[in-house]
Amino acid sequence: MRRTIVVAASGLAPLALVLAACSGNGPASTGGASAGGTADSGSGGGGTITVAASDDTNIQELFQQTLIPDFQAANPGTTVKLTYDLHGTNDQANFAKLAAAAQQNRDPAMD
Length: 111
Description:
The chain is of the alpha/beta class. It has helices at residues 12-22, 57-74, 91-103, and strands at 4-9, 32-33, 39-40, 47-55, 78-86. The chain is built from three helices and five strands, in the order E-H-E-E-E-H-E-H. A hairpin with a 5-residue loop joins strand 2 (32-33) and strand 3. It is flat and about 35 Å long. The relative contact order is 0.22. Residues 25-42 have low confidence and may be disordered.
């Protein structure tokens, strides 16, 4: 089963927490959270995580060159897609879209 998790991150601390949470904690952590925030019965064997983040160019490079490759190496079968908003020019619109999707319990399709 393919899972997609959407994350809004503004800076490194939220991303680090999300990636750590998604990495699981051994064989017992086989479930995951869907975009609506409810646990699903997935196999825990991968999927796609879409990270929507905004910051400066150096942070974008950190995501692309270090954080995402390290996370994917530690979690085989998991793909991380980065949607990056340079300098936060679209932050307000992106957060409004995420909030509306969460209220309606649906996937915000932040690709």
